């Protein structure tokens, strides 16, 4: 179960498709608690990466993550652009010279992304953001690895934890982001950024399993 730069760009293509399939749903969610542009921002970023697919997949894995971070930072507007941009740049440092992602390195990479997003945006788990599915998915994955469960069980834990974290945002009061501008703080509505983060983690787990 390993993913190299080329495999990672296959993942990027699958996420772009997943986003395309869910345009109206994500846009509607961000229209309720935000300003409605979250899907457009994410779609723009993933399409930009696909435009450069042949150049990107020739890079080493660490360089690929760094370049993705820079491209996302410069093309994607809104909070997502800077948060995902920082996440990829920090993850590239965690990867270093390693040429492929295995499940333990994936846990390190997701940990680096989580740290970068929290540092850049000043938010924590429970604030009703993209952090929630990432945090809960990663915690579940790390718990599985810590008790010696295999790759498949760790990926299943990542899937289940990220869905739980995404779903939990519905009941949360927003502490960061545009949903804080609402008097109800978004309670009763899923956070759009949590939904798209969850999509990415599901697709990632699927790419490892296939
Ligand atoms: P904007 O909020 O600038 O319009 P987007 O619509 O692209 O940007 O992204 C909104 C999503 O970004 C939210 O649903 C939330 O998940 C996430 N988000 C916003 N602010 C933060 C933050 N400070 N920390 C982590 N995630 C955040
Ligand atoms: Mg928005």
List keywords for this structure.
0% strand; binds magnesium ion; 210 residues; globular; mainly alpha; binds adenosine-5'-diphosphate; 10 helices; Serine Threonine Protein Phosphatase 5, Tetratricopeptide repeat
Note the topology.
Blueprint: H1 5-21, H2 23-33, H3 38-51, H4 53-56, H5 61-75, H6 78-95, H7 103-121, H8 131-146, H9 151-168, H10 192-209
Bound molecules: adenosine-5'-diphosphate and magnesium ion.
Report on the structure:
The protein is mostly helical and 210 residues long. It has one domain: Alpha Horseshoe (Serine Threonine Protein Phosphatase 5, Tetratricopeptide repeat), CATH 1.25.40.340. It has 10 helices and no strands. The longest helix has 19 residues, at 103-121. It is globular. The termini are close together. Bound molecules: adenosine-5'-diphosphate (ADP) and magnesium ion.
Number of helices: 10
Class based on secondary structure composition and strand pairing: mainly alpha
CATH level-3 fold name: Serine Threonine Protein Phosphatase 5, Tetratricopeptide repeat
Helix coverage percent: over 70%
Task: Tell me the strand percentage band.
Answer: under 5%
How many β strands by DSSP? Answer: 0
CATH superfamily: DhaL domain
Cα Rg: 16 Å
Order of helices and strands: HHHHHHHHHH
Question: Which kinds of small molecule does this entry bind, naming each only once?
Answer: adenosine-5'-diphosphate, magnesium ion
| Poorly predicted spans | none
């Amino acid at each position: 179960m390993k993913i190299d730069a080329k495999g990672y760009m296959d993942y990027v293509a699958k996420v772009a498709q997943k986003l395309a399939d869910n345009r109206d749903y994500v846009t509607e969610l961000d229209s309720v608690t935000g300003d409605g542009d979250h899907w457009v921002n994410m779609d723009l970023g993933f399409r930009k990466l696909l435009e450069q697919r042949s150049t990107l997949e020739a890079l080493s894995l660490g360089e690929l993550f760094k370049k993705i971070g820079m491209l996302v930072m410069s093309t994607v507007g809104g909070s997502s652009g800077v948060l995902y941009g920082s996440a990829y740049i920090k993850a590239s440092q965690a990867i270093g010279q390693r040429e492929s992602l295995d499940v333990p390195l994936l846990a390190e990479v997701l940990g680096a992304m989580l740290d970068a997003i929290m540092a850049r945006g000043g938010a924590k788990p429970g604030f009703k953001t993209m952090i929630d599915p990432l945090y809960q998915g990663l915690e579940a994955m790390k718990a599985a690895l810590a008790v010696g469960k295999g790759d498949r069980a760790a990926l299943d834990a990542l899937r289940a934890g990220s869905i739980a974290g995404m779903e939990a945002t519905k009941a949360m009061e927003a502490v960061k982001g545009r949903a804080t501008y609402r008097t109800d703080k978004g309670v009763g509505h899923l956070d759009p950024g949590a939904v798209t983060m969850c999509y990415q983690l599901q697709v990632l787990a699927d790419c490892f399993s296939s």
